[in-house]
């Protein structure tokens, strides 16, 4: 039997609202991959349109947790980072990459900081500069279009997009450092929405689209990232992974829209897990 893969997930834990660790843990674990977590902060809810959230910063715990793991010689096949709350956290996480990265460790960075053309309320204007530095050390990055524009210092543009524009963004993102760049929220018309990827070594682009459903739903970036990483850890190639992640995310949105729940409360990803496992040949 193949050795079980292990991922270190470094994100906040927002108690309510389904994003970050409350999404990454169940999804990645369900696909058979072990997840070890470093919570960067504990919040009552995420910060996306829910006023009054509590925020317990755990910056002082991150390094000691990593040091303890190091003393136990724990190895990871991937390190997955998401929401990081400050420049100090970015620097600590960068040092964790240096400590735990082996030849076959995939450093997978979701530069969570913005959406719909705006930085999240919890970040200062110059935060993208720190996130860009972290992305230099990544093998894979998965920004949405707003985050991508902040990373390459270009103004945000609304879609629909042209293929040349998307491929230009992907190339500029890869100049930051990562070999694989995945852009989410890509659409060329009003019917289909998905993701585009650029493999720098092969100099090749790939696309995966699914039905475009109107409106933005909270936590879908974390769901997309968790699924994509799970597919890569389970031996799927990037084209297959992008399509599985795009379809899964769209199905979550469709289900949640039909149920009519508050968009800020996250999507129903749980009901999609059996289907996901069938598609990944786990059931
Ligand atoms: O889904 C990204 C995310 C993660 N964590 C926190 C957030 C957000 C987006 O708003 O606020 C705390």
Question: How would you describe this structure in keywords?
Answer:
283 residues, alpha/beta, UDP-N-acetylmuramoyl-L-alanine:D-glutamate ligase, 9-stranded mixed beta sheet, two-stranded antiparallel sheet, 11 strands, 39% helix, globular, binds 3-hydroxy-5-(hydroxymethyl)-2-methylisonicotinaldehyde
Quick structural gist:
The protein has 283 residues and is α/β, with parallel strands linked by helices.
Fold blueprint:
Layout: E1 6-16, H1 21-30, E2 34-45, E3 55-57, H2 59-71, E4 78-81, H3 87-100, E5 106-109, E6 114-115, E7 118-119, H4 127-136, E8 140-141, H5 145-151, H6 163-176, E9 180-186, E10 192-199, E11 204-211, H7 220-233, H8 238-259, H9 273-279
Parallel strand pairs: 1-2, 1-4, 4-5, 5-8, 8-9
Antiparallel strand pairs: 2-3, 6-7, 9-10, 10-11
Helix pairs in contact: 1-7, 2-3, 3-4, 7-8
The structure holds 3-hydroxy-5-(hydroxymethyl)-2-methylisonicotinaldehyde.
3-hydroxy-5-(hydroxymethyl)-2-methylisonicotinaldehyde (PXL) binds at residues 12, 14, 19-20, 43, 46-48, 83, 112, 120, 219, 221-222.
